[in-house]
Amino acid sequence: VQLVESGGASLQAGGSLRLSCEASGRSVNDNCLGWFRQAPGREREGVAAIDSDGIASYADSVKGRFTISKDSAMHTVYLQLNSLKPEDTAMYFCAWRFGTYCPLSESLFTDWGQGTQVTVS
After folding, report:
1. Could you tell me if 95 and 21 are in contact, meaning their C-beta atoms sit under 8 angstroms apart?
2. Residue 121: which of 15, 20, 42 has the closest Cα?
3. Buried (b) or exposed (e) across 24-46, using 16+ Cβ within 10 A?
4. How confident is the prediction along the chain (121 residues), in pLDDT tens digits per residue?
5. With the C-alpha atoms ordered 104, 106, 108, 113, is the resulting torsion angle positive or negative?
6. CB 113 within 8 A of CB 5
7. Please, are residues 112 and 93 in contact by the beta-carbon 8 Å criterion?
8. DSSP 8-state secondary structure symbol assigned to residue 75
């Protein structure tokens, strides 16, 4: 699966942003898609995931602020980021995992995009 993220930007705290991840080669409808992020000097962490039924899961740090969604016809997964904080600054990665099991666990995702940078000041 080839995953291409876009939408990263630099913005001020309190702002909003929508990240996109276009997948080619495999379905986003029947599998698990996730968003992860990595800040400088820190390990990559799970942000949100969405399963084949459209059920989403979120890290506690982003609940109520971020929303993951997908458009199967467009082969695209989105991450809406609202009420952004400086601590949200990171490289954001899209990831794919085959099947219906959809944990927010980095080691279980097999395909990754190159990332898109979000900087909040």
Report:
1. no
2. 15
3. eeeebeebbbbbbbeeeeeebeb
4. 799 999 999 999 999 999 999 998 777 778 899 999 999 999 999 999 999 899 999 999 999 999 999 988 879 999 999 999 999 999 999 999 998 889 999 999 999 999 999 999 9
5. positive
6. yes
7. yes
8. T
